[in-house]
Every structure is written in C-alpha cells, then in structure tokens.
Amino acid sequence: MAQRPQARGGKPGSGRPGRSRRKNAPRSAAAWFRGKAWLLLAVVPFGLTTWAAFLYIGIRGRRPRWLAWAAVYAALLAAYLAIDASAGGKAVPAAVGAFLGVLAWIGGGVHALAISDDAARRIGARTDTALDAARLRIERRAEGRRLAVRRPALAKEVGLGRPDIPGADDYGLVDVNHAALAALTRLPGITDEVAGQIVDIREQVGGFASVDDLGLVLDLPPSLVDQVRDMAIFLPDS
Q1: Using CB atoms within 10 A as the burial measure, which of 37, 54, 130, 179 is most buried?
Q2: Rounded CA gap, 222 and 121, in Å?
C-alpha cells in the first residue's frame, strides 16, 4: 500500500503546530503586547499611574465606565498624597493615607488585570477596523488608477474621480481635469482659492498631464503637491 505524503504543516498525530502557525506566533505576541502594554501603568509605578491606565483604555475602547474608574483612582491618589503630606508623623492619618495608596495600587492592579482581556479586544477591534478601512481606501484608489489606464472610456462612464456627480463611483479619487470646484477642495490641502485657480487655468491650458504638471503650472509648494498625489487623477478629454 502506498504511503500518504505527510503534510508540510506538521507531523501527523504529533500535535505540533505547522509552519504557518509558528510564523504567526511573533505577530500574535506583538498584538498581545500592543493590547495589554497599558497594564504596566496600573502595576509598576505603585499606583501613581493607575488612573492613567484606565483613562487610556476608556478613551481607546470608548468605555465610559473605565473613564469613571480613572476618576476614582485619580481621586484615591490625590487623597493619599494630600493626607501623606499633612500627616506630620501622626499614626492614624499616615495609616489612612497608606491604606488609600495601597488601594489605588493593589486594588487598581487587580481590577486592571480582571478587565484586561475585554480592554484588549475592544482596543484591538477598533485598531483592526481602522486599518482595514485604510487598506480598502488605498486598494480602491489603486484599482481606479488601473481602470483609468486600461479602460479610460469605462472609467469616465462610471464617474471615476467625479465625487461631484450623483451616483458616480469615484474610487476615492478626484479628476483634477474635470471635477467641479467643490470636489477639488476634497483634495488634501486644496483651498477654495487654489481650486478656483485650477478651474481657471485648466480651461486655458486644456487640462493637466500629472500632479507634477499641476504643481509646476500653478507654482504649488512641493509639500502640497505630495499631499495631493495620492488622491488626484488626470483624465484626458478624449
């Protein structure tokens, strides 16, 4: 009987992870650290920055309850510092201050550990969503540029670079040679004044060939040309 070839991902029956899983290990560790590095604020500085840890996860995770706890731990810290400064060596005030300090440190640390998984999920979910959206916008613009080169007539038909046309699929781009003034102001750094200059001059010169041509004709700063580069497209008239 012929033997089946072993899968490259790992030995059958060994329970060992395959290569792809091992490759993902460093990435998973990095993601874990990004999601839980804030715990150091709650544990290491003896309660002095517990409030900052809860403020961070409250803002990043959009969790009002954690923001409220940030205020609680900040109040505990303020009370501890105030009592400690005014105790004057008296045993009872010093003990009360020490108790508040330990409560902010140990209690806050345990509290932070208890919610760390939830906080990491919330922060990670928001980060992943934002990154995915950014990647999608970049991919759409690249797809639109390819369409303009390979099938320019179709690009015009779908409304590539024309956010000023209702129902058009602009692909996240702005056609500098044809878009209306209001649409031109969607380009980064392009003010109403600059957009007006573009409209006036493109009629005189018959449009622009590229973003560098636009910058040269209008004498735009190099920094502004670079801002516009990713979102501008220049479709010819014919």
Answers
A1: 54
A2: 41
